[in-house]
Amino acid sequence: MTQSSAGLTVQSLACARGRRVLFEQLDMTLMPGQAVRVTGDNGRGKTTLLRTLAGLRLPHAGRVCWAGRDVHTEDAFADGDLLYLGHENALNPDLTAVENLTALRALHGCRGDIRAGLQRFGVEATADRPCRTLSAGQRRRSALARLCLDGARLWLLDEPAAALDAAARQVLGDVIGAHVAAGGLALFTTHEALEIPQTPVRSLTL
Ligand SMILES: Nc1ncnc2c1ncn2[C@@H]1O[C@H](COP(=O)(O)OP(=O)(O)OP(=O)(O)O)[C@@H](O)[C@H]1O
C-alpha cells in the first residue's frame, strides 16, 4: 500500500441537499496519526460531509476513498475500519448503558471492557439504569464510552462534545488524542472548544 492510499482521501467533493449545493471542490487527505476538526455555522453541511465520508450518502460530485478504494462504489471499509458516531447517541432508551454497549460490541465484533469505558467517561454510577432516565450529558458520555471499546482505525465523530461539561470534554480530548497518537485517524465536528492534547489538529471550515 502506498502512503497516499493508506488513509482517507477526498477529491473535488461536492455535497448537496435536494437541489442546493452545500459545498464543492473539497480536497482533503487524512492519514494515520492525523486529526481534522470540521467547523462551520449551523446548516453549512458538516453532518452531510461526515455521512458522505462514511459512505452513508452519495456525493453530488467528486470521490471519497479509503485505503485507495471508493467508499461509494466499492466495499472500501472492512469490518473494524470505521467508527461513525452521529448526532444521535444511538442508545436504546429502554436498555442500560451496559446493555447498549454489549449489543454494540457484539454487532461490531470489537473487544474492550465496557465498565472501564463507562468509568473513563465518569458514568459508571449510572451504568445499570435505563438510558431514558439519564441526563443528556450522561447519555452522551455513555455513548462515547464506545470509543474505549472500539479498535476502529478511522473515527468520524459528529458533535461528540455536545452536551458535555468541561470535565467530560477533557476526557474526550484525551481519548481522541490517544487514538491519534497510536496511529488512528480522527475527523470530528464541534461547536464547543475541544482541546486535543499534544496532537496537531488541522481545521476544515465549511
Ligand atoms: N433531511 C433533509 N432534507 C433536506 N434538507 C436537509 C435535510 N437534512 C439537512 N438538510 C439541510 O442540509 C443542510 C446541511 O445540513 P447539515 O445537518 O449537514 O448541517 P450542519 O453543518 O451539520 O448543521 P448543524 O451545525 O446545525 O448541525 C442544512 O441547510 C439543512 O437544512
UniProtKB/TrEMBL annotation:
Pfam families: ABC_tran (PF00005). Keywords: ATP-binding, Cytochrome c-type biogenesis, Membrane, Nucleotide-binding, Translocase, Transport. Residues 8-206 form the ABC transporter domain. This is Cytochrome c biogenesis heme-transporting ATPase CcmA. The lineage of its organism: Bacteria, Pseudomonadati, Pseudomonadota, Gammaproteobacteria, Salinisphaerales.
